[in-house]
Amino acid sequence: MHNVEIVLNNIEQGGFIVWTVDAGNGHVAPIEDYWPSGTYMQDGVVYSPLENINSNSISVDFEPFQSGEQLVSSLKFKILWDDGNYDVGNNGQIIYYDIYFNYRYLNLYISKDSQALIESFVFQSDGEIFFLPYIRRPIMDSSNLWDFETVYGYSGPISTNENTEFLELAWQNFKRLMKKIGIIAGLIRFHPFFNNDRFCTNNSLEVHYERDTVWIDCSRDLTEVLGDYSKKHLRQLNSLEAKGVKVCPSNDVNDLHKFGEIYLEKMRSINAREEYHFDREYFNGITKLGSNNWMVYLAYTPNSKIMGGCLLLFSERFCHYHLSGSLKEYIKYKPNDMLRHTVIKDMLESNIEKIHFGGGLTRDINDGLFSFKLKFSKQLCQFKVGYCIVDEKKYKSLCEKWEAKYPEKQEFANFFLKYRY
Predict the structure, then answer these.
(1) What would the pLDDT profile of 68-112 be if each residue is shown by its tens digit?
(2) Which of 81, 80, 62 is nearest to 72 (CA)?
(3) Residue 156 region by backbone torsions, left for phi larger than 0, else alpha for psi between -120 and 50, else beta
(4) Which residues fall within 8 angstroms of residue 305, CB to CB, at 6 or more apart?
(5) How many CB atoms within 10 Å of residue 163?
(6) How remote is the C-alpha of 405 from its chain's centroid?
(7) Does residue 410 carry a pLDDT above 60?
(8) pTM
């Protein structure tokens, strides 16, 4: 990891950062090698003092987490103020973290024989930070050219400052670096919960609305959430439960691979693009996220045959309905409905703040998958993408060559990095 500096502005009192690190098996206390000056441990909890920068700003600096004894992929913290109250940054500071920013998650999309690289751009100025993780890939049949994408899912840039001057400076430095290392363009997938497209300035990249996605606010009670279901739908689900259809959560690796087999069969049956054919290696990688960051749910017929499943990914605040699949011979038992229904009930009883179900296959409001998800919630947020062109001349040249070579690939004609298809 890089150096990490946490800065809090507009502060009227001091305090401590109470923090943990993810070293591959959930969040644990950091080893002493990583402790900033003045840190202490009490009852197994690590406290690091916040230092004054000026009259109303405080910070704590962490050196790179590079000890072989504890390999760190992410850090979580809360604030213990001098008055004894805890805070998670809602005093004008927004703390952005989700599973999609985890190094081990990005690593799921790097094959062993690939030349792709996981990188992150960090820009700091006057205590403010701009951060953008991405995957850099070589462009085949080109003269040492590269492009980048943020990882499958929802991430994009995060910043401690929304000031236009700061953001323009960050993007200028980002593009300067990209050009230096041969990157010509990049695709950014923004996070629907963070609305982090606001960290982009007019001249940094083009932001495009992609589609609506479905989510649930878990502070609502079950009765209110079930009010989004139709009465007929709810009767069907209750009837299936009465007949013995059940859904069970699991952190067992064998159950994860059982789901993986169902998912892969489903992707093949619908002729999904190869990039969505996640294999056994991918699901082995899921286990390396740590047991607190994933869970599989399996749906069973009344005679206990597995008929479908879903893979959930977690951060402290969010649950993402990451992948799902079912066997068509059991469609009468509505496995996909039962899976979502059970996940909703379980998450409403947990500390999770939001469930994200994602959107449809297209932006069409009548898209079948989107309509299915709307059966469970009417709450919507917007998924946006960003098109970042670093070297317009080289990018256009690659697109023109692709169009001339593959006139039959019209389904990819409007893709931003279409020369990859």
Answers:
(1) 688 777 777 778 888 776 664 433 344 578 999 988 999 999 987
(2) 62
(3) left
(4) 330
(5) 13
(6) 35
(7) yes
(8) 0.78
